[in-house]
Target: Urease accessory protein UreH-like transmembrane domain-containing protein
Amino acid sequence: MPEPVLSLTAAWFVGLASTLHCAGMCGGIVGALSLSLPAAVRADRLRFIGFVLAYNAGRLASYVVAGALAGAVGAALGAGLALEPAQGALRLLAAIMLACIGLSIAGWLPPVAAIERFGQPLWRRLEPLGRRLLPVRSWPGALAFGAVWGWLPCGLVYYMLALAAAAGGALSGAATMLAFGVGTLPVMLLSGLLAGGLARLGGVPRLRRVAGLTLVVLGVLTAWLPPDLLHGIS
Model:
């Protein structure tokens, strides 16, 4: 498998493996948004699906922007420092973060709130904007709310941003975050269509342990695999 494809496939798999974390953290949000739509919209299946897709399209757009910024910053740091050591340090940080998040999801570590506090200053500025967009009554409004929602503090997103920063450039960082976001889509779309019904999956201990252990394994692989296998497209 070509290296860029392998890297993006790994990012997609992290998104898919984070299903229970996403269902518990964001599934309730998108479910509440869906329930807040007018009854006429919820009764029209196509319009309803359009709103759910718009929420998630906005969220993925924010991931892509954040990934491009992280990739550009990582490339700039790499240009000023020795490139491989700088990228290796970012990759190791990402691996440790992902392993800690996995252990937390599995219930073997306390919640990793310290990681998610990293984005709180930005979120405090964006949250009032999101509130002003409620209630959502149009697809553009859903897209805008999704774009704000994409900046919600999340340890898994920060892990992926660290990996995007090590990817080698803005384009590769954006592609990494897009692949991750696409991996989260199945559970987010179903949570919206089922009005948050999947959110309770996040409370099933056995499923949480499986998901958490999967993320720990991915963290170990992130640290262990040769750097070339983790580079995105340049």
About this structure: The chain has one domain: 3-224. The mean pLDDT is 80. The radius of gyration is 18 Å. Residues 45-80 form the longest helix (36 residues).
